[in-house]
């Protein structure tokens, strides 16, 4: 399996406390990972850093798809390939379809092809019937599925999911979990920060644990 | 003249289509809307930029915007008068006692209101809107448009507050405009003049127009809020 991403010297400190200091952090292409660790270990911070939402402290260098660049400032081209989904995704107050197509529109892709991709992603996530509903009024599970469709439609090479099932229970949680293997089967690298045993137990998922500022890869 | 008689005379004046009265209304609306239209894009950009960017002097910029809210319009008028007067910095423009001069004053009066309200609206916005836009590949401009769309009612409230401030101010319009009949006489300067002459009917008639405009603006905002669920968005 080829390496999709590697970062040399990924460090973050809050004041005098070092949250983590990772050397030669790597993710393989087409692999699924769960990132575990106690609350405050820095799981979300690590994901947000890879998504360019937080800057690393040290002069980290990221290699992605064969190209190397400093991680700070965040390389614009990474936005084409990496999508981050919040623990509690926010919906734009437009329509469900517009939310799903947001990234396509941002890339200047409109028309029949974009519409077909949006419809396909909505059908995949089981949210096609929600298009008439105001996005803000969707349930937590529905929002998470719309957010997954919004990410999937862009066909990212790396998908970062921050606690995708943390606020869900019952059927809503199961519906979200059922979507994850499809993303991996499409060849995307998926990293999920979570404590959910069902996500951790998905076939083929590798386990990483952030502990004492270091990353342990578990089999 | 008793109040009831003055009100009756005011309505009669409004319904009669009095040209001088409706000219005053037109000058007021034209200068206010133009001033607001000129100030709004810059102010919204400034308000957004101050809200989302961290830069040296940011707190000073916020303080100035908020302090300028309570700046008396007559003082704005005085400063603008000194700038526009024949020997002033911009005296060559010959805008003193013209509608352009009033519009310049309206821009200066509306700017801090629009900046402060936009700043507050953007600061109150959920930061995940900007983050979600960013991680889905939006450019900085698109992120800004997306966030402004999400706080559009706050921005609209800013515009309506700005409009309320410029159309109801009297000090600046009086000093810079000169209250010239048919040219720079606005609703507020006319009310001040007519009241000082003891002519209450026209003052009340213009006051009714002012209240009607304020009610109409707020009704528009309410209607737009009502349509929020069917809005189209930035695409």
Overview of the structural elements:
- The complex is a heterodimer of chains A (219) and B (235).
- Chain A has 6 helices and 12 strands.
- Chain A has 219 residues and is α/β, with parallel strands linked by helices.
- Chain A has a single domain, classed as Rossmann fold, CATH 3.40.50.300.
- In chain A, helix 2 runs parallel beside helix 4, helix 3 packs across helix 4 and helix 4 runs parallel beside helix 5.
- The model of chain A has no long low-confidence stretch (mean pLDDT 93).
- Helix content of chain B is 75%, strand content 0%.
- Chain B is built from 11 helices and no strands.
- The radius of gyration of chain B is 20 Å and the shape is globular.
- Classes of the chains: A alpha/beta (219), B mainly alpha (235).
- Chains A and B meet through strand 8 and helix 2 of A and helix 6 and helix 7 of B.
Describe this structure in a few short sentences.
The complex is a heterodimer of chains A (about 220) and B (about 240). By secondary structure, chain A is α/β, with parallel strands linked by helices.
